[in-house]
Amino acid sequence: MTAKQQIKRGTPGTNDLLNICTEMRSRWQGLAKVLGFRELELEQITEDHADSFERCYQMLLQWMQRCGSQASYDMLARALQNPQVNRHDLAFKYCYQL
Fold first, then answer.
1. What pLDDT, in 10s, does the model give residues 17-50?
2. CB of 11 within 8 A of CB of 69?
3. pTM, full prediction
4. Which of 22, 67, 73, 92 is most buried by a 10 A CB count?
């Protein structure tokens, strides 16, 4: 990250969420755990949605609904950069302004 890059303001947009899910795929559960989802919730999402992309997207929609205006690019970036997720690339690609 360069000094000129700043975190985007506001809640994550649909396109950014879709793109993150496209790249996360089967690693969505790690992100979900960092965002505060319990194992039972992950099992329900897995049961309700067959595809890992859809599981990731539904989880992020639930996170945004749960957190309301507190669901921010900053919070998402920190979760993506958490050692359990280790997707700094996605945080910089989708949560930071160029």
1. 999 999 998 899 999 999 999 999 999 999 999 9
2. yes
3. 0.92
4. 73
Dihedrals phi, psi of 9, to nearest 5 degrees: -95, 155
Instruction: Answer whether 80's CB lies under 8 Å from 24's CB.
Output: no
d(CA 87, CA 39): 21
Altogether, the residues listed in the chain come to a count of 98
- The b-or-e profile of 49-80 (16+ CB within 10 A means b, else e) is eeebbebbbbbbebbbeeeeeebbbebbbbbb
**Are the beta carbons of 21 and 53 closer than 8 angstroms?**
yes
